[in-house]
Amino acid sequence: MTTHAQESAGPNKNGRAIFRRFGTIINDIVKVPLSNLSPSCRYEEESCTAAYSEASGSQHHVVGSLRLITSPSPNAAPKRSTAATSDIAVSFILKCEDGPNDDINDNRWKTFYSASRALNSNCRRKHAYSIIIEDNHLSLWYFSRSHLARSQEFDLMDVRALVHALSALVFSTVEDLGYDANVRRISEWIEDSKEDQTRYVYRLEKRFFKTLTCRSEYDNLYITGRATRVWEVVEVTSFDDIAPLPHAQRMILRDVWLGHDSETEREIQEKIFERCDELGRNFPPENDARFNGVDNATRSLLRERLKDGSYKNLFLTIEADYRGAVSKPPADGFAPAPYIYDQPVYLNQEAKQPGSDPHRGSTSRANSIPDEAILYQPPPSVPREYKQRQRNFVVYREVCCALHELDDLYDVVQALLDALLALQILFLVSWVHRDVSSGNILSFQGRGKLSDLEYAKEFNLLVGGRSSDPKTGTPIFMSVEFQSEGTVYKKMAKRNTWKNTNRANAPSSSTVPNHHNFQHDLESIFWILTWIVFTHIPGQNCTNVIWELFHSRSLGFAAARLHFLTDEDVCAKKLASLRKDLPPVLSNGLLGMRDVLHMGYHSREKSFGDISSYSPIYGELREILEAIAASVPRGTVKLVRPPPPKVGARSGYAPRTETMDKKKQAPEDTMLAPHKAASLKRARGASDADNVGDESRAGKRAARE
């Protein structure tokens, strides 16, 4: 139980006095002998006057804590006089009666920040609890990767309810308090750095993998979502025997939260590979619509790859995977309330009572967005789904580099060529990837691999409408059409003459929903190469272009990307800001890719199901990429690599910003992995918040700050 007190002397003294009494109550509860229950937490005030965090940037101000009796911190961790945040089980926030009303909003940001730090700085944590006291009312909060929930408030003078709530926490198991039994924190002496370092051991059924280096750390404002972490790991014997197995090779482990009813990447990959093997046994004839405009050499290559199974080399090899912890389901009778922290999202019509203020209540997404950036609020009639999430561990054999980690343009283009071939194979079996990004195209021993198939789905216009086919992917790499929910193709309006001026308008024909289609995946290839060229080649003055095209929070972001794709002059003008000594084929190639994609959208019009309209584009883009690769041999165009991660106790990236306010206001960093920015990735099927209580004052202070 972490206690956040007011900064002024009066409320702080009141807070200490109040929690000293709480500590007495809690410690008395701990001493109660129960035959079937043992306490897991206890209150300690003197040793918790401050707390240190294993990750920099923590803002805990502790005057008391309810900590685990058996600490999850490694025994060999550095000796400190303060309590590690990993030992703190529940966050406790207080607004005293003599504090200003706006402190209610401040309290809620504190409890959110505390939960965020607990979940994001400790891989053992799968959910977190908090308690908020506002004046003489208490409420319990639950934070998970699927949603956050708030209980109904009750009066502190209700002794029975108070003791019941505290007892439920004290006698909960360590796992019920949010610590994952399939993850163990360890401390290991690192000879190079001459210090102990906190690492993790993941259990995948009967196999154990120890983390070595963090490749991608999750550290942003969103609590809900996939919360992906990527580690280099080595297989070990057990939690207690952490020596690498004989001949064990380094591999990659991805820790990700998926929808509870979602298929894992292995399950999706197996479905795709089954289709590919069937296609290899029964290769389609030359006049098949999927080979419209495909040259004989490419067709032969595809046939051989599918026949001998070598197409699998274009994807990652999954060594092991495991379905782990599941978030709690929403409570029966819950009422969604979307305004705890100020961002309007899906408002459930049933939850809005007559005469109530729509800006009061709980939030669905713990993130602050300026008012001018809120361009669209879904109508009240759209229901919001609150689905559980399940933790998934996946181990891959290949230790690869993402495109934005490469230091040579030639290697980037080669990886894009292989990814293009992988996308064409997906096209042949009628699957779309839906999340092509610089982090999902990998380079391994000089060749490219297409990864992260969790968003992939079968292309079918008859199912998966807008409501069940949500926008996915990384905005700066997403197709213009799918991001804008419109079409690049615009039908020319007929000229209005005197003959039809008074004629009644004919009813408009129904249109086919613009689903994510094959060309949307191909357009992402174009945006990735454009992003690399503008942001990773040193010695260029492209700041304005980068801001317009690759900062999704800028107000003109969508329009700038649309014009860059559809207007040749706009594209050429922005490409003119590149370094003058670069091979001309680079800017000419990007202009050519733009032209291929633009013409593809217009020639298809709205016939999204016309398979023959997609097939020529693969060959046209391949020809351009091969020409670029031939003109930029390795060593010709060097790239700026992102700085190495700051390795700390949690073996990961240190937070890019130090405080909550800075994190809320920080722009996207185009030189680092795009998924590191808070606003870039939209989680699949995210269910962000629900509330089980009365409406309360909204947190608008954060937006103003």
UniProtKB/TrEMBL annotation:
Protein name per UniProt: Fungal-type protein kinase domain-containing protein
InterPro entries (alphabetical): Kinase-like_dom_sf, Pkinase_fungal
Organism per entry: Trametes coccinea (strain BRFM310) (Pycnoporus coccineus)
Residue ranges of domain Fungal-type protein kinase in the record: 79-533
Coiled coil stretches, renumbered: none
Biased composition, class Basic and acidic residues, residue ranges: 658-667, 694-705
Stretch list, region Disordered: 350-381, 640-705
Cross-referenced Pfam families: Pkinase_fungal
Taxonomy, superkingdom: Eukaryota
